[in-house]
Amino acid sequence: MSHPNALLTPRGRLLLAQCVVDDGWPLRRAAERFQVSATTAARWSSRYRLLGPAGMNDASSRPHRCPRGTAARTERGIIAIRVNRRWGPARIDYHLGIHPSTVHRVLARYGLARLSWLDRATGRVIRRYEHTAPGEDVHVDIK
Q: Per the database record, which ranges form the DNA-binding domain (predicted)?
């Protein structure tokens, strides 16, 4: 989200594009007026020609597809090894021949906890006490 006083908010982009497209200003003059480069002025004016006022909003930079993503079969193998053998990314990497950062990214995507957070015997996440303030004591009643 852009700053409300910035020159190139969606409203400012629309004004820039309308100056170039509708009013016929040269790109350099419009760029100078709105304190941007001529390349930026050309980008917003061409987007205005293509999409109209709706094209002045910020577009997502997320890719539409990921052709080299990790295969579902490989992800299932990573998850199976983690759950059954409780290995870390480096060991799974050596076993499957995949880079450890890829293994870690898959484990994080599926929300599998870090090995240090698991109970070694059961493999379940250890429940820890959470307090509202630091240094707060835990009351334990023992008889």
A: 3-72
| DSSP annotation string for 24-50 | ---HHHHHHHTTS-HHHHHHHHHHHHH
d(CA 35, CA 129): 54
Where exactly are the structural domains of the chain? 10-56, 72-117
By the 8 A CB rule, do 119 and 91 touch? no
- Tell me: pLDDT of 29 over 90: yes
The radius of gyration computed from the CA coordinates of the chain, to the nearest angstrom, equals 27
**Computed from CA positions of residues 119, 124, 129, 130, in that sequence, does the dihedral angle turn out positive or negative?**
positive
Question: What secondary structure letter does DSSP report for 125?
Answer: B
State whether the Cα torsion 13-17-18-23 is positive or negative: positive
Using the predicted structure, report yes or no on whether residue 113 has a pLDDT greater than 80: no
Q: 56-108 pLDDT, tens per residue?
A: 998 889 888 888 889 999 999 999 999 899 898 999 999 999 999 999 999 99
Contacts of 21 (CB under 8 A, 6+ apart): 45, 48, 49
Rounded CA separation 4/81 (Å): 50
